[in-house]
Design goal:
Length: 588
């Protein structure tokens, strides 16, 4: 086990968080970086991320589609938005802003609020009850077209109140759909006057209403959305829209930003599906419309059950359940406070382009973390295998426990620089997912390679170098304790340096799929730190303090042998790396 694994991993994640902050992505939960890099499906609401998040009231028209006296529609919508006490959405703000621009805010002064029926995501509408100075009381309902039509029994066509027949309802829906197809979001407005009830209004009072008109809002797609989505697709991240808007608007926006519109589902269709059918349907569906918050979490959960790492991007209170369900919750700095608190990652700019850059930084961080885990685990595996082999045949320890701990400490200190290493572009092209299976096979492939050269080193030290410097005899034929101690010190120092050199240099060969230094260059800090470490730690054996830990000075002929061993080790590793990549189509 790598002793400094917690520190190295934390250093990687912290460095990644700093790098991502420079890309306008703030990481609140460090562990989310791993999921950010592994994310292969992004679920997002369309408002603000695909669109400009500048909703304006484009038009307000009568129920029959005419503009005659249409300011009456604006007036009723204004009363509904102004007198409600719930959280005002972007469309409420657009209405209030439009009224303010027309200097019509004084209209509210002639009315007082009696009661309200708050908005909820099942009804998809909200109502206020107001009264004028003459005591005339009316209920005004504003919301999604279909849901408002459900509570209407009448419609105002050509200035006259008519029963809302099926024919008139179809005409009303056609007027709304025509505006939807232009990419506008449409709300219906209805009212009912002469209410006898005084207080305690409830959902049951939303009935027998009169449809009086529509409000059409425009939130155009962002110019950058098309390119950002193309980049997400190129990096292996599928984009799915989970919206509360109707399907016509969602399709219109999706079509403009380059998202496939051939597979879509509505919240009503989802309600009528059993879980098995829905689980199969969500695989290919890219557009979900008219969803409730619970349906968003249901879709995310089903995608996760299929082995996907799912991110959710949103900014409203209604998105909090989806944040909690997703692998990584992503919000924006303009979101409501509760949404930002629930999110793992906060984008400082509401743009998919920023998100794409954050994903790439997340993958780089995850890759550098995997470098340390895989390479160190395989090196440690090889060292342990070498110790087992040596202990079976040598009459003394090939390296003391203190020397092994020191070797690992020196190696791990050098590895602290890995968070600053370069990452090949190929490693960021697809989601990076952690798997214990890949660690096991990586260890089994590359760990024994070092053991081969460790055993060669053992043979050289035991039968050639140590006897040459200790009376031309092997350890078992010695009787002088001093010579035996010198023999052991030479052997342990020789393996200490060989292990250190191979462990450090193998970082450069296994950090990339390519040929190191030729096709893929490590960062300057990594190069400087690793080679400085080799020089410093080799020099340690030439100092007087080396004797404290059982090491000693080695002759020049050993370093000639060490150079040949290291060179052959690198060549064999390169060959095995090629075989490994052909078999498993990847390395780190």
């Amino acid at each position: 086990t790598p002793e400094m694994l917690p520190m190295i991993v934390t250093a990687n994640l912290s460095k990644g968080a700093v790098s991502m902050s420079k890309k306008k992505t703030v990481v609140k939960n460090l562990n989310a970086i791993q999921n950010f890099g592994a994310m292969n499906i992004l679920c997002t609401d369309k408002t603000g991320t695909l669109t400009c998040d500048k909703i304006v009231l484009e038009k307000y028209i009568n129920a029959d589609g005419s503009n005659d006296n249409s300011k009456r529609i604006l007036r009723h919508a204004y009363f509904n938005s102004y007198f409600q006490t719930g959280l005002r959405n972007l469309m409420d703000k657009a209405i209030l802003s439009h009224v303010r621009d027309l200097s019509l805010e004084h209209l509210k002064d002639d009315y007082t609020k009696v009661d309200e029926i708050p908005f909820d995501f099942t009804r998809r509408r909200m109502s206020v009850v107001i009264e004028d100075r003459q005591g005339k009381r009316q209920i005004i309902t504003k919301g999604a077209v279909e849901e408002v039509l459900d509570v209407c029994s009448y419609a105002e066509f050509n200035g006259q109140i008519h029963p809302l027949t099926d024919a008139l309802k179809i005409k009303a829906q056609m007027i709304s759909e025509d505006m939807n197809q232009q990419g506008m979001r449409v709300l219906a407005v209805s009212q009912k006057s002469f209410i006898e009830k005084d207080c305690n209004f409830a959902i049951e009072d939303e009935k027998e209403m009169v449809l009086i008109g529509y409000l059409a809002f425009l939130d155009p797609p962002k110019p950058s959305a098309v390119e950002a989505i193309e980049q997400l697709y190129a990096h292996g991240v599928a984009v799915k829209i989970l919206s509360g808007d109707n399907d016509v608007v969602v399709k219109a926006i999706a079509r403009q930003v380059g998202i496939d519109t051939s597979h879509f589902l509505t919240g009503i269709e989802i309600e009528n599906m059993d879980e098995t059918t829905l689980k199969e349907a969500v695989k290919d569906t890219t557009l979900f419309s008219k969803l409730t918050p619970l349906q968003k979490t249901q879709i995310i959960s089903l995608l996760q059950e299929q082995g996907n790492t799912v991110g959710f991007l949103g900014d409203g209170i209604n998105d909090i359940p989806a944040f909690c369900e997703s692998n990584v919750g992503i919000s924006v700095d303009t979101a409501v406070d509760a949404a930002k608190d629930a999110a793992d990652v906060v984008l400082l700019q509401k743009d998919l382009g920023v998100l794409e850059q954050g994903i790439l930084e997340g993958r780089k961080t995850f890759t550098n973390m995997l470098k340390y885990i895989k390479i160190t685990a395989s090196s440690n595996f090889g060292n342990i295998f070498s110790v087992v082999c040596a202990s079976a045949f040598l009459p003394f320890l090939p390296m003391t426990s203190l020397q092994i701990l020191l070797l690992n400490l020196l190696y791990d200190v050098l590895c602290i620089i890995l968070p600053w290493d370069n990452v090949d572009e190929e490693e960021t092209l697809s989601p990076r997912d952690w798997s214990g299976k890949t660690l096991g096979r990586f260890m089994l492939f590359f760990g024994p390679i070092s053991s081969i050269f460790d055993i060669v080193t053992f043979l050289f030290l035991y039968y050639i170098l140590c006897p040459l410097l200790c009376g031309d005899t092997t350890y078992l034929n010695m009787v002088d304790p001093v010579m035996q101690s010198q023999y052991v010190a030479l052997f342990q120092t020789g393996w200490f340096l060989e292990s250190m050199w191979t462990q450090v240099l193998i970082l450069h060969f296994l950090r990339t799929r390519k040929i190191p230094f030729v096709q893929s260059s490590p960062s300057i800090p990594v190069v400087c730190t690793t080679f400085a470490g080799i020089i410093v730690f080799t020099s340690l054996t030439f100092t007087k303090s080396a004797g404290v830990i059982g090491l000693t000075k080695l002759p020049n002929m050993y370093f000639l042998f060490l150079f040949v061993v290291v060179l052959l080790y690198m060549l064999l590793t390169t060959v095995v790396k090629t075989v490994y990549q052909k078999k498993y189509h990847g390395l780190i």
